[in-house]
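Consider this:
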Amino acid sequence: MDDPICPLCGRPIPPEAKQSLHHLVPKLKGGKGGPVVLLHQICHNEIHATLTEAELAREFSTIEALKAHPRLEKFIRWVAKRPPGFHSKTPGGRRKR
């Protein structure tokens, strides 16, 4: 079976890679039970370091919208050159909720 593909960066997610589920609409903003996508942990961390829960719920509740965000666009170009299992600490913390 092929590894799942991260919808944000387009790289495969091998079983040993750090990974997590991202709620397209944050749980705190009514997304509990809503659609989720499997992402590399580094991609998921970057989303939450870039956007607040309110911004995610309001304007960035699709992969297409996330990919169009200027900071995430730059991150995707950078991480796409890394191996599928690559992980590093995300600079900065989570944005406030």
The mean pLDDT is 93. The two ends are 37 Å apart (CA to CA). Strands lie at 19-23, 36-40. The first helix runs from residue 41 to 50.
